[in-house]
Amino acid sequence: MVLRRTYLCSYEKNELTVKDEIINISSRKYPLMLLYHCNMGYPLLSENARVVIPHDSVVPRNDHAAEGIKEALIMERSQADFEEQCYYYDVKEKEGYAACGIFNPDIEKGLVIKFKKDTLDYFTQWKMNGEHEYVLGLEPGNCSPDGRASHRERGTLKYLEPNQSYSTELAFKFYKSENNFTEDLK
After folding, report:
1. Domain boundaries in the chain?
2. Dist CA 124 CA 86 (whole Å)
3. Phi and psi for 129 in degrees, rounded to 5?
4. Which residues contact 149 (CB under 8 A, 6 or more apart)?
5. What are phi and psi of 64, to 5 degrees?
C-alpha cells in the first residue's frame, strides 16, 4: 500500500485541507482501514466548550458509554479514574460532506472538521475526560476503532484490490467567532 498525501493551506482562509490517496500496488487484495484521530485538548477543550456533531443517530460503544450518552456532547471537567467513552454517529450529510466541530467561548476559538461522507462513512467521538488525559477525539473514518476482526465478523471490512486506489479528503477550518462556527455546521 502506498499513501500519497497532499496538504493544502490557503493564504486567504483559515483552513487546512488534507487529501489522501491510497494505492494497492501489490498483486492481491488487502484490507483498508483508515481512521483520522483528530484529538482536541486544552485550551480548546474545557468544560465550557461546545461540541456539535449534526447527526441522525448515535450508538454507544459499550454499556459504560451508554450510561453517559445524554452527556456525550457535554465536556465536563477532568476527573480522576475517568473511563473512556466512545460514540458512533450517523452524521448528517450536506452536498456530499459531513461536519463536526468544537468551539470554546472562553478563548473565542473553534474548529470545524469537514469530510466526504461517501469515503469516510464512519464517525466516532472519543471522550476521555481523565485527569492528565483530557482529550476529545472527533474521528472520521472508513471504519470504527473496533479493529479488523470486528469489521470482518460484521461483514463491513473494506478492501483494496490490486492496483485499486482510494481517495478522500478532510478540511480543518479555524474560527474566532461563534456565529461563523455555528453557520458552517448547519
Report:
1. 32-157+172-184
2. 7
3. -95, 40
4. none
5. -60, -45
pLDDT for res 138:
98
First to last CA, the chain: 37
DSSP class of residue 149? H
Q: What is the mean pLDDT of residues 10-17?
A: 92
Question: Alpha-carbon distance 141 to 131, whole Å?
Answer: 27
What is the C-alpha separation between 89 and 51, in angstroms, rounded?
A: 13
**Cα dist from 28 to 69, 74, 105, 151, 184, whole Å:** 41, 45, 51, 19, 42
Identify the bridge partners of residue 58 per DSSP, sorted by sequence position.
89
What is the helix (H) or strand (E) element at residue 96, kind and residue range?
Answer: none
Query: The pTM is what?
Result: 0.93
State CA 118 to chain mean position distance. 14
Cβ atoms of 138 and 4 within 8 Å: the answer is no
Q: In this predicted model, what pLDDT tens digit does every residue of 90-107 receive, in sequence order?
A: 999 999 899 999 999 999
Cell of 54: 449534526
Rg for the chain, CA atoms, rounded: 17
